[in-house]
Design a protein that fits this description.
The protein is α/β, with parallel strands linked by helices. About 30% of the residues lie in helices and about 25% in strands. The protein contains ten helices and 17 strands. The strands form four sheets. Strands 7-11-6-1-4-5-12 form a seven-stranded parallel beta sheet, with helices on both faces. The chain binds flavin-adenine dinucleotide (FAD). Flavin-adenine dinucleotide (FAD) binds next to helix 7, helix 8 and helix 10.
């Protein structure tokens, strides 16, 4: 028997949707291994997150709750995950390749002396052996890899694993002891957390994304926001737009930004560099607006409009508004 441990992500006491993608992986991996999966919730005041995790079909929900875990610090969380994995003889530790997972899981792997398969987009099982599909070269190629260490650590790309539904059953919840922070944690001090508040859907989870590129210059918000508003969309941006200060860095879509796979992705004034495509080409329908008919973005677009964005986008916004009365 070989069991899987899902590292849950919680914010303000609630379970984040990213956890559901890791649970989908865990169901598949545990079935192949002939084992079970548990969900580990870490923090302080996370009872509601644990209760929600208990609806996801796990054999157990483990709760590591302590005042010292009230704010996320990798140096405090990584030893907790590693200790739980070791104590329970876990074969695979999995989380989602969100900012949280990308920060935490490599440290967990180092503590466990485990191989780490990051940002996987698929699981291939042969009997009880697990192989992981991973993008390479900015998503231009995919490789299959396996991990040879006794414990494996995996992060899954959220857009590649559908969110797990509630199972209908309630898993038992067990509190686990939290050891005092080690020397590494003692040297780290939490100073502050600046959260960007937005009424828009979260970029990585949105069904519709409207992204703008460098071409928008200082008119980024003036042109993109009204279109995003009428479509109920999240706003994204190219790296060039972020680097130039037209859009904040947390909106960047691409290889070194967020990976999105919405039902509809509208790329406005974006050339379609491979590093940008790496973050959005999994979108269901791609619409591109660019004045250059040869822009590479048109090679991946389902619908393309060759036009000046400064006239086309306000007109499109107006027409959508009018069609809705
Ligand atoms: P440009 O390439 O300058 O394109 C602007 C486009 O706007 C052009 O196609 C032009 O025809 C069009 N345009 C201009 N004026 C108008 C107008 N009036 N109306 C309509 N269209 C107009 N990029 C990312 O986006 N995300 C990443 O994560 C990322 N990671 C990177 C990682 C590495 C290691 C490297 C080297 C690069 C990375 N980049 C990334 C940068 C990437 O290579 C491109 O430079 C960037 O995506 C270009 O952004 P852009 O399309 O907004 O700008």
């Amino acid at each position: 028997m070989a069991d899987v441990l899902v590292v849950a992500e919680a914010a303000e006491g609630k379970l984040k949707k990213t956890t559901h993608s890791a649970v989908t992986f865990a169901r598949q991996a545990a079935a192949a291994l002939g084992g079970t999966y548990s969900i580990l919730v870490i923090g302080s005041g996370v009872d509601a997150a644990a209760t929600e995790a208990a609806t996801l079909g796990a054999a157990k929900v483990l709760v590591a709750q302590d005042g010292s875990l009230g704010v996320y610090l990798a140096e405090r969380y990584a030893p907790v995950v590693a200790e739980v994995a070791k104590a329970r003889g876990i074969a695979v530790v999995v989380g989602t390749a969100s900012g949280y997972g990308k920060d935490l899981l490599p440290r967990v792997a180092a503590r466990l002396d485990a191989g780490y398969a990051s940002d996987i987009t698929g699981l291939v099982t042969e009997g009880s052996s697990l192989k992981y599909r991973r993008p390479m070269f900015a998503g231009n190629a995919f490789g299959l890899c396996s991990v040879a260490t006794p414990i494996q650590v995996v992060s899954v790309r959220q857009s590649a694993f559908a969110a797990a539904d509630a199972s209908g059953a309630q898993s038992p919840v067990e509190q686990v002891a939290v050891a005092r922070p080690g020397a590494a944690a003692e040297r780290v001090e939490f100073v502050s957390f600046d959260q960007v508040k937005s009424t828009r859907p979260e970029l990585a989870e949105a069904k519709v994304v409207v992204s703008g590129g460098r071409a928008l210059k200082e008119k980024f918000n003036q042109v993109i926001d009204p279109l995003a508003d009428v479509l109920g969309a999240a706003v994204g941006a190219s790296r060039a737009a972020c680097d130039a200060g037209y859009a904040p860095g947390d909106l960047q879509v691409g290889q070194t930004g967020k990976i999105v796979a919405p039902q509809l992705y509208v790329a406005v004034g974006i050339s379609g560099a491979i590093q940008h495509l790496a973050g959005m080409k999994g979108s269901k329908v791609i619409v591109a607006i660019n004045k250059d008919a040869d822009a590479p973005i048109f090679q991946v677009a389902d619908y393309g409009l060759v036009a000046d964005l400064f006239t086309a986008v306000p007109e499109l916004t107006k027409q959508i508004q009018a069609s809705r009365g």
